[in-house]
Amino acid sequence: MQIQDLPYQDPGVPDARSGPRFLWWLGRNQLGGQFKALAWGLLHFTSVAGLPFCVGFAIQAVVDRSGSRLALAGVLLLLCGFTIALGDTFLHRSAVTNWITAAARVQQLLARKTAQLGSALTRRVAAGEVVAVSTGDVEKIGWFVEAVSRFTAAALTVVLVCVGLVVYQPALGVVVAVGVPVLALAVLPLLPRATRRADFQREKAGRATELASDTVAGLRVLRGIGGEDLFLDRYRSASQEVRHAAVRSARMWALISAIQVLLPGLLMIAVVWHGVGLAREGRITVGELVTVYSAVMLLTYPLRHFEEIAMAYSFSRPSAKRAARVLSLERATDIEGSREAIVPTGDLYDPATGLLAPAGCLTAVVCGDPDAAGRLAERLGGHASEEGTPVLLDGVPLDELPLDSARTAVLVQDKDPVLLSGTLRELLTVPASAEVTAEEALAAAQCGDVLEALVQGSLDTEDPMDARITERGRSLSGGQRQRLALARSLVTDPGVLVLDEPTSAVDSHTEARVADGIRSLRAGSTTVVFTSSPLLLDLAERVVLVHDGEVAAVGLHRDLVRKEPRYRAVVTRETDEETGPTGGTAGGTTGGTAGGTTGGTAGGTTGGTTGGTAEKAAFTDRPQDRRTALSDVLDELEEIEETA
């Protein structure tokens, strides 16, 4: 696999049972690149190790006054220099290729898992941890994967040099053969502590990243309440903790590096001391002494890769553990491939709650708990984070459908949709049925003012479709972002569209037009809207009240307002005291007394209505709620007058 061939057609199925198993899986999937780097590494390191023998051979030729052997030594030195440069160049090329391709494989795996899990991912794993895994962790994982081949080449070179020295000069070679393993293993007792400190540093860095991500996401709100300084102090404290942890970790690695420098120096001193004694006794020549001395000196180069592989593993192991944790997550009930790639159409039914959304009908769902509503919306889309009875679409369990078919059949837009950076045209270029144009979707979502704002904010284009949207649409208001996300969902024209509070951030006038646009554009298609807005509820063909995790009432909005106290409490924001019988009774008594003989019955009924319903309207939170409640009062008064 070369860099220009990225991305992978299929990154494979990872072994995510643990961090080390995941690293081993990555290495096995890059055997070709690993062997290539190993071959070039062996060429490079053995050429470096050959220099001492060439130098010793040249010095001995000078001592013996042999011109031919000196010329041969010069040729050998030139050859070693060429192979050192060649091996180093292609070793670096192969190592970088292994690094980038391994990191790219992990990123593709994470992207695929994110797409599979959807919004359920951030409920199982913190958003900051996902960011840390997809950025810094993939680099550390790639570092270890590519460092394995270089370490293997260095280790084989060290073994070859030790064996060669024993054969070349046994008296000194034995000293080197015994001392080198001691050098390589001397730092092992320090590695566990260094690893723990590195893990602690990564944990602190992940928390700081999560805090920074949350702060940036809520910066507009923080400025509104004057909380920038508070969160700045929190992040400053978190960053200082990261700094202290990094310093402690660096101290340990500095100690390991110092040992890696000190011990080879001591070995070199021992070799020279012993070698000088042997040379005085005439047991070795000057050339042999220089050869052994040079070999020991150059061994420090491949030996440094022992330190590097230890560092790479220490830093990549927690990164691989986090990546494996994310990649091991699965859909609550995932039986991929159990059915053919079909896209069923029909009624949408949730056995857990009893919620039924008939095909071709606009169904509104009222749920008093917003979090429960969000979870139910995700269940309807087949994204449930907890195991349970799957949702049925035309009798087919969504969780047993292939993921592509399930996503084509049902689209869920949550209450906090995300807009990616790019042009508006790119935002609306999504997999779609081609039955709904971008212009129609934008009109239905009432995005006229959004288009004007995009054109005004763009200096180089007059076409709003080519205007750029900043990251997460931060240059737009909350209502504008919400309507653009709604337009994107409408463009896809799925078989079933599930909207979770699609108008919570817009004013009542815009909300009324958006509600009418949704009903018109989705006529004849299955649409489920989670909302408590009377404007949307009044346009729905079917309204379902979900209370305590199950369907409590079904009907039309106006009927449920009159007959169902629990529904009325959610829609009109009534308190328990207001929903009690005292409001109606007191109003009826007052109205009956004030009406006297001529209007006792009408007055009592009117008083009961105004005492209960009008009082209810006074306690509503939003203008559209008050208008709808007062409209209900007027309708009831007209019916009373006709009866009287």
Automatic annotation (TrEMBL):
Annotated SUPFAM superfamilies: ABC transporter transmembrane region, P-loop containing nucleoside triphosphate hydrolases
Location(s) in or outside the cell: Cell membrane
Domain ABC transporter: start-end pairs: 330-573
Record flagged with keyword Magnesium: no
Chain positions covered by the region annotation Disordered: 570-644
Pfam families the UniProt entry points to: ABC_membrane (PF00664), ABC_tran (PF00005)
GO cellular component: plasma membrane
InterPro entries xref list: ABC1_TM_dom, ABC1_TM_sf, ABC_transporter-like_ATP-bd, ABC_transporter-like_CS, P-loop_NTPase, Type_1_exporter
Single GO term (MF): ATP hydrolysis activity
Regions of compositional bias (Gly residues) in chain numbering: 581-611
Spans traversing the lipid bilayer: 37-59, 71-91, 147-168, 174-192, 253-276
Amino acid composition bias (Acidic residues), ranges on this chain: 633-644
Protein's recorded name: ABC transporter ATP-binding protein
